[in-house]
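Q: Convert this sequence to structure tokens.
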Amino acid sequence: MEALLSLDIHCHLLPGVDDGAKDFEETCAVARALLDYGITHVACTPHIQSDLYPNTRETLLKLVAETQARLTAEGIGLTLLAGAEVRLDPDSCTPETWVTIGDLGTHVLVELAPGFPLVEQMEHQLFAMQAAGITPIIAHPERQALFIKDPEILVRWVEQKGFLCQGTLCSLAGAAGERSVNTLDTFLRRGLIHFMGTDSHHLDRRMRDLDQAVARLDAIVGPENAQLIRHGNPRALLAGQPIRRPTPVAQPAPQPGLVKRLLASLRLA
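A:
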């Protein structure tokens, strides 16, 4: 089968370091599930959060290498790359925690703190990354209250600041609720999503129906944009090439509400 993604840039596969796989047995189970979807390359992105998951670049690089060796010994043909999901707060997001995807020194996956964090403070941290030659990738914006309330913040970050965004396949499959489906649909249509990831933690709802999510992605943005998001941009990231923004597509026409549909049916009767 065709790979759902050339590179899953958001995956909590490493054992015992965050709220993802609890042990190597679960790592193997998730790895096999990813391979069943045709995904052969995964950026391992455990949380870096100072008060809960104080992971470091040194410990994560070592664990990626160890886990890769154990998967290979088990005959599981998944290729692991380094990475992290760095919490955007002053204590967690520091140059020492910028574990770049593939340890290439170019892109870091970042996560907003819950609620409505201070936008200026986050921008200061993101600008510091850019000044160091690193491009931030915003994780799952469709689940962030800040962007749900005010999508124009995300528009400004993408269009004016040059930040990138990663949507989640399971959100399109409905695993995070209808609001996330609709929010991600809107962000995709506006050309704000550059990558998709699984954000897989366990063999749970996040890992179900991902093939249906990809079909929905194609229907929302069209085959060319979908190929760019699923394959073109991930390959460009690994090759050190520019990441392209998908072309915005038209929003669907709003459907009339129940009362309007009833009134229309009465007029036609």
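Residues 8-268 form a domain with the TIM Barrel fold (CATH 3.20.20.140).
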